[in-house]
From TrEMBL:
Keywords: Cell outer membrane, Membrane, Receptor. Its main location: membrane. InterPro entries: Beta-barrel_TonB_sf, CarboxyPept-like_regulatory, Plug_dom_sf. One of its GO terms (cellular component) is cell outer membrane. The keyword Ribonucleoprotein does not apply. It is found in: Cell outer membrane. This is TonB-dependent receptor. Gene3D superfamilies: Carboxypeptidase-like, regulatory domain, TonB-dependent receptor, beta-barrel domain, TonB-dependent receptor, plug domain.
Length: 813
């Protein structure tokens, strides 16, 4: 009897323990995995230690293929540190572990000094730039305020970068024109990858390097490398900046989805393995349709305009035999805005009299292949094609009585750009201290431009065909870069880049590059970099012309390259893996800048350094020569603390001076000479756990994690310059006439505050985020420019964006 009682008691005890274990809440866990490899040769690094720190500490070692895996990692933010003998110890901050998606990391290590001031995360190979470089992650794009999910808008939070108009992402870097920036995708230069490239411009015409919304969604992007000066030899055809975007690979082990809806648009992404899970083959696809387009289908307009855009992007990752890797990628999209003339009783400005249609299409695609050749060499090659086309048509709905008879009644602009590039390179580790990277880009460039201005009556002020032509040629850019590390504290690089553009005989340049980094004490590093850089002219500069019958024939097809010397001195103080202070002083001297050949009061101040729009110059073309100069100098300070202990800071400030000189020898202020800029971005997170109750129907009680975030950004910058308007000349026209080409009127300082609030909830199998992004929260009125309104018969100031609330909902599963 006692034996039976003991047995029954033991059974009840075991059942109690069992039910207690069921009721005990389990933490939400996720997988963190990836690959560690040599950044130059792609060789896997087996035996590297990978550590996740804060809120938990987890350590694992890579296998012989460089693969690591951490399972059941609690949801939260971590610092990830990778160590391997003979390589830099690399710490990556702000690694976000979420319940809905695995965190998959590619970590390329470099041999070099004992510490690395700037860390690189998630799928980005470190480049050779020792100065003037920043890494922008998709997680930052989603967290920082006022980004529109766009790396270029986030870049304005860093020192030396100012947005020319907050309706678009045209950025001026260190006082340069936004046209000096180039966009690259998977290591190759592409055409402008932005929707609504006419956004925020003076003449409502497209720009070469900006637009309202980036065509590549943050759902698809890996780490973007943003460079502002003294570029390594691998970069060419720019004198101002590089936005180097990469695409992340899809998850090769499980299928995942992201759905996001907000004022930007409806965004849907899917990724997963192709074939056997874990084989390395994966797909990633994303589709987006604008929210304004959805409203347009319902007849809702913004400021009288029907604005729409959509895009589709994809990336396929396919390993091959011999540890080769093939990536096939593509992006395509279209955008447009339509304005319909208002009824007579509602007309208040000249724009209200017109029907205006703007259309834009863009596409890019290619294939990349990389493969190790032995233990010390890796071969990479890529074939990439990109193209875009922009068209704008403007006409009077009905010519008003008494409107200027000599004005322009119809305007038509069309431009298209195509780039087809083949590139190949070799990365060779010659010894433990010396590496060599060499390669070449061969690009077929084809640009067409048509600009027509048809007057309202006979006797045109301007010829109907202002510009009509084609720029076609081969752009050849071989390069080589040698890196040498004579000691653990010193790293030296030297190389060459050569630019040759076959469009004319004046477009070639040998460009030496050299840089060095010295670690005087652990975490305290000095750097010095010099480079000669060059860039081809915009198609509108080459093609602007007057007919041969005019008194002054204009033909600018023989213009050569614009060139620039860059010199950058930097100091970085790494306080800890999550915080650093960086200071850089720079000097840029530009030469070979196209300026007006005829030196008189009306044209003496013209320089292409002040241009922004694609057809800004062609309406009143001038004969140009490569006789101008420019000089930009400044000092930049940045303090960044990554998101650790639920708090992050990004403080940046810059003082600079941007001037240019024409044939009259006078130095003038550049259009983009704001003189100073300051940014403060700060964010705070609060995380709480709560537990669901176990019931008979749901016996698996688990923790849920909720995170609240508040992010704010303050921007204050000096105003740009505007041209003086000739009121008398503008009176009899439908367009604005200016007094000369100099920028002499300084606009008021720019000030803006942005706020982003979000709530994230993590469940065992998915996570959700609700966010409110209030841009220009104080509704500050920042002037963009002034123009002469032919309807109101007066000068009218044009302002940038006011307050815009952007509500979004994101679901990952």
């Amino acid at each position: 009897m006692i034996h039976r009682l003991r047995l029954i008691f033991a059974c009840f005890y075991l059942l109690a323990i069992h039910y207690q274990s069921i009721a005990q809440p389990k933490s939400i866990g996720q997988v963190v995995r990836g690959r560690v490899y040599d950044a130059l040769t792609d060789q896997p690094l087996g035996g590297a230690s990978v550590a996740l720190n804060s809120p938990a500490t987890l350590v694992v070692y890579t296998d012989s293929m460089g693969i690591f895996r951490l399972t059941d990692v609690p949801v939260g933010r971590y610092n990830l540190t990778v160590r391997y003998l003979g390589y830099d110890t690399q710490t990556t901050a702000e690694v976000l572990v979420e319940s809905g998606r695995e965190q998959v990391l590619d970590i390329g290590l470099q041999t070099g000094t004992r510490t690395l001031a700037e860390t690189v995360v998630k799928g980005q190979r470190p480049d050779a730039n020792l100065t003037s470089a920043q890494s922008i992650t998709p997680e930052q794009i989603l967290r920082y305020p006022a980004t529109y999910l766009d790396p270029a808008r986030l870049a304005t939070a860093y020192a030396g970068v100012v947005n020319t108009n907050d309706q678009a992402n045209n950025i001026s870097i260190r006082g340069n024109t936004p046209n000096a920036l180039i966009w690259r995708l998977e290591g190759v230069e592409i055409v402008n990858p932005n929707h609504l490239s006419n956004a925020g411009t003076l003449g409502d015409r497209p720009t070469a390097a900006g637009g309202g919304v980036n065509m590549l969604s943050a759902q698809l992007l890996g780490t973007t490398r943003f460079l502002t000066g003294a570029f390594a030899p691998t970069y060419g055809n720019t004198v101002g900046g590089v936005m180097d975007m990469s695409l992340r690979s899809g998850n090769d082990e499980r299928h995942e989805r992201i759905v996001q809806a907000g004022l930007i648009g409806l965004d849907i992404a899917a990724e997963g393995p192709m074939g056997v899970p874990g084989s390395g083959r994966s797909y990633l696809v994303n589709y987006r349709y604008s929210f304004t387009g959805l409203l347009g289908l319902l007849g809702v307009t913004f400021g009288g305009e029907d604005i729409r855009f959509q895009d589709l992007s994809m990336n396929l990752t396919l390993p091959t035999r011999g540890r080769g890797l093939v990536k096939i990628f593509a992006v395509m999209g279209n955008s447009g805005n339509v304005f319909t003339a208002l009824p007579k009783d509602e007309q208040v400005s000249a724009k209200d009299l017109y029907n205006i249609r703007f259309r834009s299409q863009m596409g890019a695609g290619g294939v990349t292949y990389s493969r190790p050749l032995g233990q010390r060499t890796t071969w990479r090659t890529a074939l990439v094609m990109s193209g875009n086309q922009n068209s704008r048509y403007q006409e009077f709905a009905q010519l008003p009585v008494g409107f200027p008879p000599n004005g322009i009644a119809t305007q038509y602009d069309r431009n298209s750009n195509v780039r087809a590039s083949l590139t190949s390179s070799l990365g060779v580790r010659m010894s433990g201290r010396t590496t060599l990277q060499a390669g070449a880009y061969l690009t077929r460039v084809l640009s067409d431009l048509t600009v027509q201005r048809i007057p309202s009556v006979t006797g045109p002020v301007l010829p109907p065909d202002v510009a009509d032509g084609t720029v076609a040629g081969w752009l050849l850019e071989p390069y080589a870069n040698l890196q040498w590390q004579p000691s653990p504290q010193l790293l030296v690089q030297a190389g060459l880049h050569y630019t040759y553009f076959s469009y004319n005989a004046n477009s070639q340049q040998v460009e030496p590059r050299v840089s060095a980094r010295l670690e005087v004490r652990p975490g305290r590093t000095f750097s010095l970099a010099y480079g000669l850089h060059s860039q081809v002219q915009q198609p509108g500069v080459y093609l602007a012309h007057l007919p041969a019958t005019s008194a002054s024939m204009v033909d600018n097809s023989g213009l050569g390259l614009t060139r620039a010397h860059h010199l950058v001195l930097g100091y970085t103080h790494q306080f800890n893996p999550s915080a650093y202070l960086k200071a850089e002083a720079y000097y840029q001297y530009l030469f070979g800048v196209p300026v007006a050949l005829v030196n008189n009061n009306a044209t003496a101040a013209f320089s292409t350094l002040n241009l922004l729009e694609a057809t800004e110059f062609v309406e009143r073309p001038l004969r140009l020569v490569n006789g101008g100069n420019g000089r930009n100098l400044g000092l930049e300070l940045t303090y960044q603390q990554y998101l650790t202990k639920q708090l992050y800071w990004l403080l940046s400030g810059s003082v600079y001076d941007a001037q240019y000189r024409t044939l009259d020898g006078i130095w003038r202020e550049s259009r983009f000479n704001g003189r100073y800029a300051a940014n403060a971005t700060v964010g705070r997170e609060w995380t709480t756990d709560f537990t669901t109750n176990a019931t008979a129907a749901n016996a698996k009680a688990r923790k849920r994690v909720q995170t609240w975030g508040v992010n704010a950004r303050l921007t204050y910058a000096g105003g740009f310059l505007d041209r003086s308007i000739d009121v008398n000349a503008s009176q009899g026209q439908t367009t604005t006439y200016y007094i000369g080409y100099g920028y002499t009127n300084r606009l008021a300082d720019y000030a803006r505050a942005d706020l982003r609030l979000y709530w994230r909830k993590s469940n065992p199998r998915y996570n959700r985020m609700l966010a409110l992004d209030i841009q220009n929260v104080t509704n500050a009125q920042n002037q963009a420019h002034s123009y002469f309104d032919a309807f109101q018969r007066k000068i009218v100031p044009q302002y940038q964006l006011g307050i815009i609330p952007v509500l979004s909902y994101r679901w990952e599963f």
